[in-house]
Amino acid sequence: MSYQGVLTPDKEREFRELERQGRLPKKINRFGDSYLKFLLAAPERKWLLLDLLNAIMSVLGYETMSDIKPTDRELSPDISDGKGIRLDYLGTTPSGRKIDLEFQKRRDEEFIKRALFCGSSIIHRQLESGSDYHNIRQTIFIGLLDFTLFDEEPWYWDFLLANLKSGKILTSDLLLIFIEMKKLTGLLDDLRKRVKRGEFDGQDPISRLMVWGGYVTSKGVDIVSEVMTQDKVFTEVMKAENDYWGNSRNRYIQYLEEKHERDALSVITSAERRGEAKGLAKGLAKGEAKGLAKGEAKGLAKGEAKGLAKGKAEIAKNLLSLGVDYETIIKATGMSVTEIESLRDK
User: Fold this and answer.
1) Distance between CA atoms of residues 306 and 297, nearest Å
2) What are the backbone angles phi and psi of residue 270, rounded to the nearest 5°?
3) For residue 187, how many C-alpha atoms fall within 13 Å in the half-sphere facing its CB?
4) Which of 126, 166, 231, 318 is most solvent-facing, going by the fewest CB within 10 Å?
5) What is the DSSP letter of 75?
6) Rounded to whole angstroms, how far apart are CA atoms 191 and 304?
7) pLDDT tens digit string along 258-278?
8) Quick check: 223 and 14 in contact, CB under 8 A?
9) Per-residue pLDDT tens for 13-51?
10) What is 161-196 written as a DSSP string?
11) What is the mean pLDDT of residues 141-158?
12) What is the pTM (predicted TM-score) of this model?
């Protein structure tokens, strides 16, 4: 949720009271929506974002960008309630790539499908703006994840549509990239050892991406503050952080964001539990009626499905009442826009 701009009178009073009582957050959340927007979406600091993007592209062996500019889109750059920051940019390269960068805090079952949806939507918007199929630029969806998406190594992944047997690429028009920053903890320890041995190369793409990941997750801030002091990018990063955190209003914004996330998560968790309990109860009742002793499990499965569906509807209704946007509700419940719309009058 974005609280940028002038605070309402009630929020202003709350801010002043929390500031007076010394109850504003004491520690910055570097993976917080408002801070990432401040750090990476400001036009005067786009070269910081360009450095991060080029580190990602270099690690995976793709063409880097000489410049980027935000696309004309309502959510770009912006913050969506409970989801995190998305930055939709057009990268200047010989092939004119389009870049959609998303910071994700929490895992959900439909994350990969939503990544496909986001990337496909960008391709669709190119056609809507008058481009024909021949002129469609490559779309790159990059997810910087504060959770583990895959059980195996490595911590950076790229995917194209390709034939499973031959490896032949069908098209490179949609490229999905996932950076699992949660896996960096042990790797940062190794990076620190290399620093002590004098073997650290701050311009090496993998090391640079690890430093970025360690910074935004707050697991490697020491590397930035102690080792990267002569690096102009990370010198500016630390300056931006000091400017941001030195403003008590930004600490209040973080307080509101964290409160909103806790409230939304509580609504989702409690509704899911109620839905699961109802589903199990109905399933057991129906299953018993048909004779569970004979192995009739259909009633249980159907009851669970019905209960879970009802639970999802309850989640969606509660999130709608909180003013949460459709994209976040779709992410939390897996429901369609039509299904969510139908709940408004119930």
Assistant:
1) 14
2) -65, -40
3) 18
4) 166
5) T
6) 48
7) 888 777 666 655 665 666 666
8) no
9) 999 999 999 999 999 999 988 899 899 988 899 999 999
10) EE-TTT--EEEEEEEEEEEEGGGHHHHHHHHHHHHH
11) 91
12) 0.72
